Amino acid sequence: MTERQDDRQVTAREQDIQAVSRTAQILGLFGPETPELSVAEATRRLGLNRTTVHRYFSSMIGCGLLERVEESALVRPGRSILQLGSFALGRQRIMQMAPAHMRELVREIKVSTVLSLWGTSGPVVSLVEEAEHPTLVTVRVGSQLALDSSQAKVFLAYLPDQFNADRLTGSLPEPQRTETRRRIEEIRRAGMSSHVNHRGICVVAAPVFAATGICATIAAVGTERMLPAALDSREATALKAVCKRLTKEMGGTWPEGAG
């Protein structure tokens, strides 16, 4: 690589960083006191060139970050921002509401329960309620779960972006890809998943829905002796009941035909 090419790459990176920074500055102007904004107002508050602000407005409208207010020159946050905000609020709410339900579930079924949220490419363990049992099976908070885990398959069955779900399962090697997709179809019919791994650990997982779609999974985790794998067991029924109650509290809807 020549020195001139290297300089061009550095300049391109700096321009990308500047573009992200200015986009964030524009979005930061909105708030309870400023639900809508004009080019002139954004120009004045940011101290930027009017043409530059207009160009950013046009680009942000094009990708859904902003939208035009009907019959005016004003703009407001667009669908992408509203969706992201709803998603973030849903994550906060489920983390506040789930612990009490999970503690109640642990007392009833006598095994640990695990709440996972969807990360960039799979479930991340975000909350654990451990059972008081001589044999303790648990999972570490912050653990990234594999795409073939029960929790991941539940997410993949119900993610709003099924194109992304297909892309993720498509990255799995055969025959794991085919088996995972088969299990996802079973989950859509049953409303939940169970799996016993080679170490004899059983995981039974079910979804929790908010108004925007699936927001979390809750799983019961134990040994085969502690936790039956059957989806009509007392433990699985109790887990599903908790997830349905949380779904109702989150303003979500349990899918028709799912168990």
From TrEMBL:
What Pfam families does this protein's entry cite? HTH_IclR, IclR_C
Domain IclR-ED per the UniProt entry, residue ranges:
80-252
Alphabetized, the UniProt keywords read: DNA-binding, Transcription, Transcription regulation
Q: Does the keyword RNA-binding apply?
A: no
Q: Where does the record place the HTH iclR-type domain?
A: 17-91
SMART domains (alphabetical) = HTH_ICLR
Instruction: Return the PANTHER family for the record.
Output: HELIX-TURN-HELIX TRANSCRIPTIONAL REGULATOR, ICLR FAMILY, TRANSCRIPTIONAL REGULATORY PROTEIN
Q: Report the protein name in the record.
A: IclR family transcriptional regulator
Lineage of producing organism = Bacteria, Bacillati, Actinomycetota, Actinomycetes, Streptosporangiales
